[in-house]
C-alpha cells in the first residue's frame, strides 16, 4: 500500500511513547487564568509505573518493571486511545488532561453563610473555569502537534513532535 511505513514493534513502541510525552500535559496546579506550563514533553510523568498500572490492568508489576521506557510510553498512549485507532482525538486528549489535573486547584472556599443556590452557582462557575482550561490545553496540543490538521494526534505525529525543541 502506497504511503504505508512498516515498523517493528520496538520502533512502533518508541514512536507511541514519544507521542505520549507530547500529548499528555501535566496540568496540576493550573489556574483558570492560564494554561500553566506545557509539560507535553515531560518524560517523568510517562515513566510513572503506578500511573501506567492504573491504566493497563492486564500487565503485572513485573511486566511494567521489565519494560523499556519506550514500551511504557507506548502502553500509556495505547491506554488512552479508547477507540484503539492509534490516534488521540480531542475527547481522548481531554480525558488525559482532566485525569492528570488537580481538581482542587479550581475550588474556592465557600463563603460563610452561602446558600445552596449560591453554592450551586459557585460550583458551576468552577466547573466552567476548569473546562475552559482543559479545552484550551486540548486546543494547544492540537494546534502544535496535529500536523495534518485532522483533529487528532496520531502516534507518528506525537513521536515527531517529541523530537522538536520545546516552544517550536
TrEMBL record:
Is Cell wall biogenesis/degradation one of the keywords UniProt gives this record?
A: no
User: Signal peptide span per the entry?
Assistant: 1-29
Transmembrane segments in this chain: where? none
UniProtKB keywords:
Calcium, Repeat, Signal
Give the matching Gene3D superfamilies.
EF-hand
SUPFAM superfamilies attached here?
EF-hand (SSF47473)
* Source superkingdom: Eukaryota
Query: InterPro entries in the record, alphabetically?
Result: EF-hand-dom_pair, EF_Hand_1_Ca_BS, MCFD2-like
Question: Positions of the region Disordered?
Answer: 104-127
Q: Which PANTHER family does the annotation name? A: EF-HAND DOMAIN-CONTAINING PROTEIN (PTHR23104:SF1), MULTIPLE COAGULATION FACTOR DEFICIENCY PROTEIN 2 NEURAL STEM CELL DERIVED NEURONAL SURVIVAL PROTEIN (PTHR23104)
What this protein is called in its record is MCFD2 protein
Q: Which organism is it from?
A: Branchiostoma lanceolatum (Common lancelet)
Amino acid at each position: 500500500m502506497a504511503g504505508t511505513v512498516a515498523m517493528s514493534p520496538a520502533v512502533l513502541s518508541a514512536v507511541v511513547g514519544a507521542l505520549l510525552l507530547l500529548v499528555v500535559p501535566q496540568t496540576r496546579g493550573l489556574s483558570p487564568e492560564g494554561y500553566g506550563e506545557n509539560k507535553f514533553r515531560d518524560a517523568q510523568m510517562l515513566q510513572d509505573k503506578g500511573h501506567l498500572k492504573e491504566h493497563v490492568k492486564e500487565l503485572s508489576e513485573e511486566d511494567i518493571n521489565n519494560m523499556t521506557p519506550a514500551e511504557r510510553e507506548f502502553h500509556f498512549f495505547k491506554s488512552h486511545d479508547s477507540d484503539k485507532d492509534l490516534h488521540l482525538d480531542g475527547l481522548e486528549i481531554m480525558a488525559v488532561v482532566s485525569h492528570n489535573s488537580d481538581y482542587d486547584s479550581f475550588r474556592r472556599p465557600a463563603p460563610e453563610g452561602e446558600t445552596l443556590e449560591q453554592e450551586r452557582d459557585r460550583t458551576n462557575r468552577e466547573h466552567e473555569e476548569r473546562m475552559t482550561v482543559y479545552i484550551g490545553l486540548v486546543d494547544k496540543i492540537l494546534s502544535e502537534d496535529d500536523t495534518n490538521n485532522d483533529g487528532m494526534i496520531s502516534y507518528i505525529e506525537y513521536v515527531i513532535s517529541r523530537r522538536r525543541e520545546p516552544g517550536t
